[in-house]
Input
Amino acid sequence: MMNKTIIFKYSFVFLFYIISCVGPPEPDHGLVENLPVVINTNSAFSYSLRGDDYSIDESFDISLSLTDGTLASTLIVTDYKNNDTTIVLLQDANGEDIYKYIISGNITRSDANTRIKPKKAIIQSNSFTGILSWTVTEQ
Output
């Protein structure tokens, strides 16, 4: 009887220990540090990043298909703590800039003034720290 009681107590403690283990907390903003999230569909292109000393030199072929609307671009940068300039470009098939953003601090920018079909999105920075959210859609 004593043996069963000891086994039960140890089993209970072990089970309690296993159930009590938790992983890291989920980020409240939905972004994992230094892991960009890219959405590239026929209806939208989106790039989101929560960077901490993150170097970026990325280029994406845009899948966005324009019908009759205007090309809209929205860029939001918050918590910016970078000593270097960050560049965000949207280019057409000829390599010409449609929208060019030079970021050196927190910014909110929205543009919708062209019907040129985008071909490529480029994001470049050395040791980016902050939250960057860029969306390109048809308006």
In short: Strands lie at 37-40, 44-61, 71-78, 86-91, 97-103, 107-114, 120-138. The longest helix spans residues 2-20. The chain has a mean pLDDT of 84.
